Amino acid sequence: MLLSPSMTDFQQRVSELFDTIDPDRIEFFIKELEDWGIYSEEQLDDSYYGCYPSTEGFVEDLCEDCYSDVIASMPTFMQTALDYELMWHQSFQHDFFTIYDRNSGDYYFFNRNF
User: Fold this and answer.
1) pLDDT of 46
2) In whole angstroms, what is the distance from residue 69 CA to residue 62 CA?
3) What's the mean pLDDT when you consider all of the chain?
4) Nearest 5°: CA angle at 22, between 9 and 105?
5) Where are the chain's structural domains?
6) What is the pTM of this model?
7) What are the contacts of 6-13 at 24+ separation with CB within 8 A?
8) Model confidence over 69-95: pLDDT tens digits?
9) What residues does 96 pair with on adjacent strands?
10) Are 93 and 85 in contact (CB under 8 A)?
11) For every residue of the chain, which 3-state class applies, written as one string?
12) Are 56 and 24 contacting, i.e. CB atoms less than 8 angstroms apart?
C-alpha cells in the first residue's frame, strides 16, 4: 500500500490497521478512535483486539483464548448452548468497543481499558 509521505505516524498506523489509503476513510477511523480517547499509535496498538465479522465471533475467540480449559470441561450439551451474542451484551461490551467498517462489513474491536 502506497502511503503519503506527509501522513503522521498515527495516520499511517490507522491506514495499515484498517487496510485503506483513502484519506477520507483514514480520517473517519481517526475520528472514531479519538471519540474513544485513542490519539496515538501506542494507544491504538495497546487497545486493538482484532477484526471480526461479528461480535459473536469475537467473544467466542476471546472465550476460547481465556477459558478453553473451563469450556472443555463442560458437557457437550452445555458447550453447544453457549450464547456468545448474549455474552457480548451482558459482559463484554462494557470492556470493549467496536468500530464498524461499512465497506468490508467487519467489526474492529478495542479494549476500553488501554
Assistant:
1) 97
2) 13
3) 94
4) 105
5) 15-111
6) 0.88
7) 9/41, 10/39, 10/40, 10/41, 10/44, 13/41, 13/44, 13/45
8) 999 999 999 999 999 999 999 999 999
9) 111
10) no
11) CCCCCCCCHHHHHHHHHCCCCCHHHHHHHHHHHHHCCCCCHHHHHHHEEEEECCHHHHHHHHHHHHHHHHHHHCCHHHHCCCCHHHHHHHCHHHCEEEEEECCCCEEEEEECCC
12) no
Place of cell 506527509: 6
Residue 80's pLDDT is 94
The pLDDT score that the predictor gives to residue 86 is 97
Note the pLDDT of residue 3: 55
Q: Which three cell numbers stand for residue 32?
A: 472514531
- Distance (Å, whole) CA 14 – CA 19: 8
